[in-house]
Amino acid sequence: xNDLDQIxxxxxxxxxxxxxxxxxxxxxxxxxxxxxxxxRVQDLERRGIISGYRAVIDRTQTGxxxxxxxxxxxxxHTKAAQAEFERLMQAAPxxxxxxxxxxxxxxxxxVEARDLAAYKQFHTDYMGAFPHLERLTTMVVMGSPKDExx
Length: 150
What we know:
The chain has helices at about 5-15, 25-30, 35-45, 80-90, 115-125; strands at about 65-75, 95-100, 105-115, 135-140. The protein folds into 2 domains: about 5-45, Orthogonal Bundle (Arc Repressor Mutant, subunit A), CATH 1.10.10; about 60-140, Lrp/AsnC effector binding domain/regulation of amino acid metabolism (RAM) domain (Alpha-Beta Plaits, 2-Layer Sandwich), CATH 3.30.70.920. By secondary structure, it is α+β, with helices and mostly antiparallel strands.
């Protein structure tokens, strides 16, 4: 278990909002000297608490105009069927997130496509090709008033 003190927690919150912040600015925000702050960040990286840094991309600027969350229920509840589905989702560039979840279905996907026609193509090529698909529900994103994914 990774026990974090208040300062390390504060560092993580600041970095999650701005991963490009300079060490000097970060140190100032969390109340440490730059050298102590750098040691903390390096320790968080070494421990795997910080696993990487990403750019937050405005998908509409890259031609993505259709975002949907898709729930997927499988007809076979075997390890092999799940592994096969997960491999298929890894190969699908439209699937930005794939989560194995609890409840009445096995998976929750975040799918991003150029438009409805491109989503339909994904639906046909990937979902239609999976032999153990039992239930599929698509929820189209109309807007995202809060989105803190990095």
